[in-house]
C-alpha cells in the first residue's frame, strides 16, 4: 500500500491491520514518552487547501510523534491564493524531496489526481476531498467503536451503527459506510430525503427516515454536521424543524441502549444536529474520537512509510529502547 485515497482501496485485512497498528500506537500516545524515532529523516507535508482544525492538527501530531519533519502548507498565505495550480504546487513539493503529502481539497478526486500524477513520487493520504471521502476519519471512527464495543480487537461483526443527518454533503458518511460494512457492521442512514445522495440505494447500508424508530436498535450513533456552507438551496424548511426530527436531544438520548455510544466527526452545530447536553453526556465519545485520530494517523503513516509487518514487536522495541 503506497497511498490511502479511499476506503475502497483497502482490503478487509488491510483495514484490520491499520486498526491493530493503531492499537499499538495508542500505547505510545498513552505512555510517558510520546515519540518514536521510526520516521526520522522523512519529510511529510500537510497540504490543506480547505479549512480544517482537527484533521490538520491530528496529522501533524501523528507525524511528529513518529519523528518526521513536518511542513504545514495552507492556501491562505501561499501562492495558491495567487492562483497557483495544484500541478505547480505538486511539482514544488516534489522538488523539496517530500516523502508523503496529506491533502485536503475542496474538489472531489483531488487526492487521486495528485497520487497518480507524474509530478508526485511520494505517498499521498486523502484528508478529505470535496464531498467524496475522508478515509482516516472512518478508520478512527471504526477504531473508537471497536474499542468500546468489541473489546478493542477483531472486526465489527454484528454491530448496528446509525449515521444521522446531512449524508448528501458528508465525505465522512461515505467513508464510514464503506469501512463499517467491510468490517461486518450493519449500517443505517437516517436523514430527510433531501439530504440523501442520488444512488444511495447502491450503498452497503439501509435507509430510514424515522429516527425514533431506529435509535433503540443502535450500538453506535453517529451524528453528522449540517454542512450549511455547502448548501446552495433549501434542504429543510427551518433549523428548528430539522432539530425536531433529526437532532439528538434529551428525549432521544433516553431511547438509546444502555451501552450505546454517541459520536460526531466535528465540528458540531450544537443545538442543531445535537444538543449540548447530549454532546457532553457520559455516553459521548466525541472528544475521544479526536484522541484516537492521532493513533490511527500514526498507524497510517507508519504502514505507508515504514512498511514493517511486525508492528507490535517493532513498537515494543522502540518503546523499551
TrEMBL record:
<dbReference type="InterPro" id="IPR006130">
    <property type="entry name" value="Asp/Orn_carbamoylTrfase"/>
</dbReference>
<feature type="domain" description="Aspartate/ornithine carbamoyltransferase carbamoyl-P binding">
    <location>
        <begin position="2"/>
        <end position="146"/>
    </location>
</feature>
<dbReference type="GO" id="GO:0016597">
    <property type="term" value="F:amino acid binding"/>
</dbReference>
<comment type="function">
    <text>Catalyzes the condensation of carbamoyl phosphate and aspartate to form carbamoyl aspartate and inorganic phosphate, the committed step in the de novo pyrimidine nucleotide biosynthesis pathway.</text>
</comment>
<keyword id="KW-0808">Transferase</keyword>
<comment type="pathway">
    <text>Pyrimidine metabolism; UMP biosynthesis via de novo pathway; (S)-dihydroorotate from bicarbonate: step 2/3.</text>
</comment>
<dbReference type="GO" id="GO:0005829">
    <property type="term" value="C:cytosol"/>
</dbReference>
<feature type="domain" description="Aspartate/ornithine carbamoyltransferase Asp/Orn-binding">
    <location>
        <begin position="158"/>
        <end position="304"/>
    </location>
</feature>
<dbReference type="GO" id="GO:0006520">
    <property type="term" value="P:amino acid metabolic process"/>
</dbReference>
<dbReference type="InterPro" id="IPR036901">
    <property type="entry name" value="Asp/Orn_carbamoylTrfase_sf"/>
</dbReference>
<keyword id="KW-0665">Pyrimidine biosynthesis</keyword>
<dbReference type="Pfam" id="PF00185">
    <property type="entry name" value="OTCace"/>
</dbReference>
<dbReference type="InterPro" id="IPR006132">
    <property type="entry name" value="Asp/Orn_carbamoyltranf_P-bd"/>
</dbReference>
<dbReference type="GO" id="GO:0004070">
    <property type="term" value="F:aspartate carbamoyltransferase activity"/>
</dbReference>
<dbReference type="GO" id="GO:0044205">
    <property type="term" value="P:'de novo' UMP biosynthetic process"/>
</dbReference>
<comment type="similarity">
    <text>Belongs to the aspartate/ornithine carbamoyltransferase superfamily. ATCase family.</text>
</comment>
<protein>
    <recommendedName>
        <fullName>aspartate carbamoyltransferase</fullName>
        <ecNumber>2.1.3.2</ecNumber>
    </recommendedName>
</protein>
<dbReference type="InterPro" id="IPR002082">
    <property type="entry name" value="Asp_carbamoyltransf"/>
</dbReference>
<dbReference type="Pfam" id="PF02729">
    <property type="entry name" value="OTCace_N"/>
</dbReference>
<dbReference type="GO" id="GO:0006207">
    <property type="term" value="P:'de novo' pyrimidine nucleobase biosynthetic process"/>
</dbReference>
<dbReference type="InterPro" id="IPR006131">
    <property type="entry name" value="Asp_carbamoyltransf_Asp/Orn-bd"/>
</dbReference>
Amino acid at each position: 500500500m503506497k497511498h490511502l485515497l479511499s476506503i475502497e482501496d483497502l482490503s478487509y485485512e488491510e483495514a484490520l491491520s491499520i486498526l491493530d497498528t493503531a492499537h499499538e500506537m495508542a500505547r505510545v500516545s498513552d505512555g510517558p514518552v510520546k515519540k518514536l524515532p521510526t520516521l526520522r529523516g522523512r519529510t511529510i507535508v500537510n497540504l490543506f487547501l480547505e479549512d480544517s482544525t482537527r484533521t490538520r492538527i491530528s496529522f501533524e501530531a501523528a507525524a511528529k510523534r513518529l519523528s518526521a519533519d513536518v511542513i504545514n502548507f495552507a492556501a491562505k498565505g501561499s501562492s495558491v491564493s495567487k492562483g497557483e495550480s495544484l500541478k505547480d504546487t505538486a511539482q514544488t513539493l516534489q522538488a523539496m524531496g517530500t516523502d508523503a503529502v496529506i491533502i485536503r481539497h475542496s474538489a472531489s478526486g483531488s487526492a487521486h489526481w495528485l497520487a497518480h500524477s507524474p509530478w508526485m513520487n511520494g505517498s499521498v493520504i486523502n484528508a478529505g476531498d470535496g464531498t467524496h471521502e475522508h478515509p482516516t476519519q472512518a478508520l478512527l471512527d471504526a477504531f473508537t467503536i471497536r474499542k468500546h464495543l468489541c473489546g478493542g480487537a477483531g472486526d465489527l461483526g454484528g454491530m448496528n451503527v446509525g449515521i444521522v443527518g446531512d449524508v448528501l454533503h458528508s465525505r465522512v458518511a461515505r467513508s464510514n459506510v464503506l469501512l463499517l460494512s467491510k468490517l461486518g457492521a450493519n449500517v443505517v442512514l437516517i436523514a430527510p430525503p433531501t439530504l440523501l445522495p442520488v444512488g444511495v440505494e447502491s450503498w452497503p447500508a439501509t435507509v430510514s427516515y424515522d429516527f425514533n424508530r431506529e435509535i433503540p436498535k443502535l450500538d453506535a450513533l453517529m451524528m453528522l454536521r449540517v454542512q450549511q456552507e455547502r448548501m446552495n438551496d433549501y434542504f429543510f424548511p427551518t433549523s428548528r424543524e430539522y432539530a425536531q426530527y433529526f437532532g439528538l436531544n434529551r428525549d432521544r438520548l433516553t431511547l438509546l441502549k444502555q451501552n450505546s455510544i454517541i459520536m460526531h466527526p466535528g465540528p458540531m452545530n450544537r443545538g442543531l444536529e445535537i444538543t449540548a447536553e447530549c454532546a457532553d453526556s457520559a455516553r459521548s465519545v466525541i472528544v475521544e474520537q479526536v484522541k484516537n485520530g492521532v493513533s490511527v494517523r500514526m498507524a497510517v503513516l507508519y504502514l505507508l512509510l515504514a512498511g514493517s509487518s511486525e508492528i507490535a514487536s517493532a513498537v515494543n522495541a522502540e518503546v523499551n529502547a
